[in-house]
Automatic annotation (TrEMBL), chain A:
<feature type="compositionally biased region" description="Acidic residues">
    <location>
        <begin position="244"/>
        <end position="255"/>
    </location>
</feature>
<dbReference type="InterPro" id="IPR001353">
    <property type="entry name" value="Proteasome_sua/b"/>
</dbReference>
<dbReference type="InterPro" id="IPR023332">
    <property type="entry name" value="Proteasome_alpha-type"/>
</dbReference>
<protein>
    <recommendedName>
        <fullName>Proteasome subunit alpha type</fullName>
    </recommendedName>
</protein>
<dbReference type="Pfam" id="PF10584">
    <property type="entry name" value="Proteasome_A_N"/>
</dbReference>
<dbReference type="GO" id="GO:0019773">
    <property type="term" value="C:proteasome core complex, alpha-subunit complex"/>
</dbReference>
<keyword id="KW-0647">Proteasome</keyword>
<keyword id="KW-0539">Nucleus</keyword>
<dbReference type="GO" id="GO:0005829">
    <property type="term" value="C:cytosol"/>
</dbReference>
TrEMBL record, chain B:
<dbReference type="InterPro" id="IPR023333">
    <property type="entry name" value="Proteasome_suB-type"/>
</dbReference>
<dbReference type="GO" id="GO:0002376">
    <property type="term" value="P:immune system process"/>
</dbReference>
<dbReference type="GO" id="GO:0004298">
    <property type="term" value="F:threonine-type endopeptidase activity"/>
</dbReference>
<comment type="subunit">
    <text>Component of the proteasome complex.</text>
</comment>
<comment type="function">
    <text>Component of the proteasome, a multicatalytic proteinase complex which is characterized by its ability to cleave peptides with Arg, Phe, Tyr, Leu, and Glu adjacent to the leaving group at neutral or slightly basic pH. The proteasome has an ATP-dependent proteolytic activity.</text>
</comment>
<protein>
    <recommendedName>
        <fullName>Proteasome subunit beta</fullName>
    </recommendedName>
</protein>
<comment type="subunit">
    <text>The 26S proteasome consists of a 20S proteasome core and two 19S regulatory subunits. The 20S proteasome core is composed of 28 subunits that are arranged in four stacked rings, resulting in a barrel-shaped structure. The two end rings are each formed by seven alpha subunits, and the two central rings are each formed by seven beta subunits. The catalytic chamber with the active sites is on the inside of the barrel. Component of the immunoproteasome, where it displaces the equivalent housekeeping subunit PSMB6.</text>
</comment>
<keyword id="KW-0888">Threonine protease</keyword>
<dbReference type="InterPro" id="IPR016050">
    <property type="entry name" value="Proteasome_bsu_CS"/>
</dbReference>
Amino acid sequence: MSSIGTGYDLSASTFSPDGRVFQVEYAMKAVENSSTAIGIRCKDGVVFGVEKLVLSKLYEAGSNKRIFNIDRHVGMAVAGLLADARSLSEVAREEASNFRSNYGHDIPLKHLSDRVAMYVHAYTLYSAMRPFGCSFILGSHDEDDGPQLYMVDPSGISYGYWGCAIGKAKQAAKTEIEKLQMKEMTCRELVKEVAKIIYIVHDEVKDKTFELELSWVGEVTKGRHELVPKDIKEEAEKYAKESLEEEDDSDEDNM
Amino acid sequence: SVNGEWRSSKVSTGTTIIAVTYDGGVVIGSDSRASMGGEYVSSRVINKVVQVHDKIFCCMAGSLADAQAVTNAVIHQLSFHSMQMGEPPLVQSAASIMRSFCYNHRDELSAGFIVAGWDSKRGPQVFQVSLGGMVLEQEFTIAGSGSTYIYGYVDAKFKPGMTREECLTFTTNALSLAMDRDNVSGGVVHLAIVTEKEAEKQLIPGNKLPVIQSLE
């Protein structure tokens, strides 16, 4: 696999001779161990989908949510250490709230993303603290700037995207996302595709059951970030399951 | 008063300030008198219309020192905010920053403001930020000691969606009337006209002000 740090990986305040900060890279590994979360931006909004693995039958349905509301118009989907992610969601909420208090209007998503990314970056500078072990995707929609999507990773970088994936199946998910023409789709169409992608990348063998978490923000919700209503979610899951069966059938024909 | 008590009073901008939106822009105006104790005119030509950003202006009323301190702080914060956002600030943001100063330091300050300008999100806007930190958005607003004499005039004569010329006439008439009656307002009229394209400043000397013989 990768090189063992050999002493350069003990703290985030140390570079390795080849210019890497190993602690940050190890933090990114923590994200890769977590189940997948995706966010896609379309013509009139943003849709999030999270593959929430159910580790015990005793869990209450809907607990340990991985999609958070940061402000009325901003949603955040996370992957990695859930406790770290919850802490960052509070940071993001305070930033958004203080901005509104100081400047009188909703925080623009790019600015929120930059501010939280700066906070995450601060934890990559000191030996006394470990970096955050989570990545997250922020999405929002407003009348003037339209739909926006940003992703922040443990190194403290933030990028804007049309579609992105984080977690264990991010490569497979990215491949599926790239097949979509998201710029021409509406949220209603996209919801079904997001559900389908999560079902596709879910590994039946290694991971057992999972719960699909779906949320959206866009013209369809009048700019508010909300969980997708139950009936639309059921329809999307039905579409996802049927698409998978079709693909399985077509595989059998080839044999 | 006999003993010159004006000497120990603070410089105030007993003032008339006004801001009026019209179709496509906003006109902001003030008089130019700074007085002490209501007796001594310490300056007859100060400009109470301060530019806090390319397309946003502030009018000062009350204690001149307090007003200047606050507007300087707003200019500083607003320029930083605008650079962080990477785009010109909203008039709403300028008013909010102004408000937070006025509210958090309400016990030490004695100044009121009008914040007016143009932004790409909501076009021309006028906000009144009063003494204790209240913010009120209005189509037009007047403030300062001289404003009390012209409430009747502005209430009767204002109409929304005026042309630029109509708005200029309305504003200069209002200021003239107030400056004629209020002893602590006077001098020249300072104007700023802000539209999508530009922010233009004008000065109307005292002898060029409209003389209003009768009102119809």
